[in-house]
Amino acid sequence: MTGSFADSEDELLESAIARAGFDDFGPDEFRPGLRALLAALDENSMLNPIGDFAIRRMIAGHLAARLTAERGFRAHPESAENPIERPLVIVGLPRTGTTALQEMLALDPQFQGLELWLTRAPKPRPERDSWEEDPDYRECAASVDMIREHQPELHAIHKMEAWKVDECWNLAAQSFAHSSWLAQTALPGYRSFFEQCDMVPVYERHKRNLQLIGSRKPQTRWLLKDSTHLFALDAFLEVYPDACVVYTHRDPIEAIPSVCSLCWAARHALNTGESREAYGRETLDLWHMAVERTLDVREALGEGGRQRFHDVSFPDFKANPLGVIEGIYQRFGFDLSSETRAKMEAFREESAPPLHRYTLEQWGLDEASINERFARYRAVHDRG
């Protein structure tokens, strides 16, 4: 595809149809976000040819995932009645232990997690021994292999596998109302759209996807994880009013430069002429907005609403992950079997943390400015 992004809208839609083999995109709620994204991309001057190609491919991929989900909704209309009760959802700033916590909790058979490949091709979850023969699984596995080969720095910091539980954001991306686009390149116009977007329809579609994916085990409790739920936790809780929320916390002085380093590992290959300092300020501002919004939501919920949350300290989790997990189970009334505990202990012994080096100075940041921006957060959540 060539030309402006906005002028390529029809081409992108046709590309997704050809990829998915289905042409019903469902309700048009995704079009304002798609058009805001395309317009913002046309205002961007930093995307290089690799970035232009990659972004167009990402857009077509999310459109294809939307088509695949719509085909599933039509083929399995009864899945819309599946209950999603008291899902366990992990939120927190990126790089606060959310992934390791999710992977350990996913070892418990009382939970069903959201595997990466099914976020990209939503369908009723097939039996595990059939995945390697599924074309959608193979396509996702191949894309992960490409990241491992061509972006080893990114893979070293945040390992992905098609079969592993992953974040929710690919489901939200079907609606083109998600902060993942802001991690790819500078898009101030799209950020303005995202800040004002009504996220309730996005989470309603998120829920419909879960009902479809989990339709063969509708009574199994969902385990979810995504830092970006912090941007719209009020909308998430409107759609999942009985969610059990685990909120992980780490000193922002450590978390912010770590997320800068993670995203830059993918971003810098797509852009030319962007300074690390500008990106550092942009990232700090974005995640400051996320925690401020979450603080507002928790304050508005009052004491009764606070019972939905369980706060976890990253240092505590690093030092004693099983103890933290026991606290989560006790807090929400879940049973931790001896078999599951043994699996978790083995996982901890076998899993080495990724080697990840970063400094504040790399991103033009300093402790004083971060402490100033996160003063309210610290006052509520500073736990060392």
Tell me what you see in this structure.
- This protein is mostly helical.
- The protein has one domain (6-381): P-loop containing nucleotide triphosphate hydrolases (Rossmann fold), CATH 3.40.50.
- Helix content is 55%, strand content 6%.
- It has helices at 9-20, 31-42, 49-75, 98-105, 116-120, 135-150, 152-157, 169-173, 188-196, 200-213, 233-239, 252-267, 276-306, 314-319, 321-332, 338-350, 367-373, 375-381; strands at 88-92, 111-112, 221-225, 244-249, 309-313.
- Strands 2-3-1-4-5 form a five-stranded parallel sheet, with helices on both faces.
- Helix 1 (9-20) crosses helix 3, helix 2 (31-42) packs antiparallel against helix 9 (188-196) and helix 12 (252-267) crosses helix 13.
- The longest helix is centred in the last third of the chain and has 31 residues, at 276-306.
Summarize the structure.
With 384 residues, the protein is mainly α. It has helices spanning 9-20, 31-42, 49-75, 98-105, 116-120, 135-150, 152-157, 169-173, 188-196, 200-213, 233-239, 252-267, 276-306, 314-319, 321-332, 338-350, 367-373, 375-381, and strands spanning 88-92, 111-112, 221-225, 244-249, 309-313. Strands 2-3-1-4-5 form a five-stranded parallel beta sheet, sandwiched between helices.
